[in-house]
Amino acid sequence: MRARFLMTALIGAGVLAAHSVPAQAPSTDAQINAIVQSILAQMTLAEKLEYVSGTGAWDIKPLPRLGLPQIKASDAGLGVRLSNPVGVAYPAGPALASTFNADRAKQMGVGLGLETRLSGFQQIAGPGLNMYRTPFSGRAFEYLAGEDPFLGAVLGAAQINGIQSQNVWADAKHYIANEQEVNRFNLMETVSERALREIYMVPFESAVKNANVAVVMCGFQGLNGANPVCESHAAIQQTLKNEWGFKGFVESDYAALKHTLPAAVAGVDIERPSANIFSPGALGALLANEQLSQATLDDKVRRILGRLVAYGFIGGVPAATGESHPPFAERAALDVAREGIVLLKNEGQLLPLRRETSRNIAVVGKLATGAPPTGFGSAHIAAARYISEIDGLRQIAGTGANIVLLDAVTLDPARSAWTTPSGASGVQAQYYANPTWSGAPVLTRVEPMINLDTSGGAPQSGDYRGPVYGGGGTAQPASVRWTATIRPTVSGAHVFKARANGAVRLYINGQLVMDNGDGNPLPGNVIPPTIPVNARVMLQAGQTYNVQFDYSARPGYIAVFGGFLGAQLSWASLQAPPNLSGFDAVVVAAGHSAEYEGEGFDHPFTLPEFQDELIANLSRANPRTIAVLHGGTGFDMQGWIDGVGAALHAWYPGQNGGQALAEILFGDVNPSGKLPITIERSITDNPTYANYPQASNDLNFSAMTYTEDIFVGYRGFERSGRRPLFPFGFGLSYTRFNYGALSVSPGIAAGSGRVAVSFDITNSGEVAGAEAAQVYVAQSGSAVPRPVKELKGFAKVFLQPGETQRVTVYLDQRSLAYYDAARNAWVTEPGAFDILVGASSQDIRLRGQLFNLFRSVTNTRVSNPLPAPELVRLGPVHP
Ligand code: BGC
């Protein structure tokens, strides 16, 4: 479906209860265990050995003899991917994190769970709970924790409760330490036990203790000697199961397992997608020679059955209803986008745009057209319905507004102007039956643009089906040569962008300006993306240039998950068009998309396509330039941030992101997103720079030590004293909030007592808005190195102009504690702790103190990342 009209009606806002599914299943552990035991007792050894591997797809095998149905799962971190049509495309993980709002996490969880259930699935392979530690991370867009474990502990558990309220299993992934993609099937990571416990494990610990998550997916990477981490007995059996009391089952990431016995003993309960390492033969042999105990095998089966019983799946599961895109889910995607977009800069109150004075708006960038972008990989959702950013602007700006896309500075194959060698509009295409453009072409024709799609889908500019190069799969042309002339309208740097599943060469006036060798399918990547190649070329206005673009297909690329088969070429100016200064505002949609960011590969810190230069040039020509960034990470903004009038990080805002963005730009929605990450001035400032200085996809990159230890993100910046460009927790609003009247009560903490941190927030500006207030705890003079401060509470409040609200956030001993590896316990030292309340990690408004009376040592079973009074914010927990 194409772009559509904005959602205006307030459908189903916040109605969690409306979609709660009454539990028909037994709800106490004793009841569940009794039923499980009776089923287990009837299973033969052969049936048990079969049960601990998947069906080959996402499912758990049926066992009709005992009334066990097939359990179907779908990837659904950011939208239900396997339903038909695909489900609602939600904003990316960091957008949810930017809301600093457990209600939005619950709402999105309910939406996801509801759609999963309506489409006949029982499990979601998500959410992603890994941490943000480097802007190179290919999968940061999937993860909802940002760089703070407390934030992840709240939002992850809330989203899981929302999903599981729909009687659908959530699956916390990827356990543990999947913070980068480089060499993901073999990288051996070394991470201290303290960093694991204080940072990386916390969202998972909360998912287990505060949301009773049904499934945990162990990851691909190696950790502390176990490769993959799925074979880490310490992480899975000991920590997750024995210490945290995880009741569900552990599944392997897809084909992650390498060795049968270590994986079985470490605590993996089911191999996905199918029996490879956990084949009945391999497991049976280990049982026979007593390397594996019957009790270990039974525990795996028992854990899986336990979740079937707890969710009432014995005897059958609900069928698909045929209903898709329920209003509740649509609304959830919109609400998260509205609260998740972060306003980073607003010079001279350029924003919000006023309708009376903002009549002519220039839009730049392909990302503003079509479905709002998202990342590549198993979380990729090709939105079935959407509001593009330019359509959102057109509809919100109202009648009479002139919102124009500037083709000359927009890299889009459909907007690049070509003239054939004979003077007609278009390009001349010559198709060859060999990979080397040799001999006579088998087909010559004029095409309107260079946009050949060979994936078998609807062709956009040609559907040549010639001899197959390299054999197998979809028929592809062996090689193609396109020739045309172009006539730039401005002088200076231009960019040419090619995206192709193979080798490309670009000649301008006979000079080679682009050569990607033999193509760039990433080695060892099972889901290889099709990453574009860009060239920067100086051109003169009014001159005619001959362009020759050669493409030769290669195997090893895919058309799914956001990939692409075929060849595209576009060109655009990096210089501002002469009339740019006449526009009331210029909106540039920049950053990443599935073309540059996603699963299985890491990416550079710099913006692609020479966008730095483009944004700087546009803002020089028109200071009312608004940069809208897309992607799952921070970017290098040094080259242009001082010059732009305004900047926003829109992450991947989901299918309704075009509406949310336009509402924010025009002030119909007051931005309230806060950065869940630190954005550095220079990559050298990032605390992980020492161990991961440059994005890499090198298969020889075999080991990485998290040398920054617990000092990741703002914890590292504050220790080194390096000033970030935008600090953790930062985000602007169209109103002002004043903080006051802090009380810390009781001011003396001891043992299991809770401390209430209360303060007033006043909206002292002219418009309504929401503030995410943050509570940090700081201890000086500790016996161990501690971060300057750590987030231990937050609250989001919506206030009318002039309104004041008293906010209370709770702390307990864990809020003050560090993890002591020698004791395997959480330790709180006696002494003074500073309680810092602020609008960001660098904007502390109120300071109080708390005195902790006694040393307390709490074991890892009992200790909870969230204080008990905060748990009510997370919604009901599924038994
Ligand atoms: C990813 C998982 C995903 C699975 C199934 C793997 O490559 O790491 O996150 O759930 O594929 O698509």
From TrEMBL:
Residues 1-25 form the signal peptide. This is Beta-D-glucoside glucohydrolase. One of its GO terms (biological process) is carbohydrate metabolic process. Residues 422-586 form the PA14 domain. InterPro entries: Cellulose_deg_GH3, Fn3-like, GH, Glyco_hydro_3_C, Glyco_hydro_3_C_sf, Glyco_hydro_3_N, Glyco_hydro_3_N_sf, Ig-like_fold. PANTHER family: BETA-GLUCOSIDASE (PTHR42715). It comes from Cupriavidus cauae. Gene3D superfamilies: Galactose-binding domain-like, Glycoside hydrolase family 3 C-terminal domain, Glycoside hydrolase, family 3, N-terminal domain, Immunoglobulins. GO terms for molecular function: beta-glucosidase activity. Belongs to the glycosyl hydrolase 3 family.
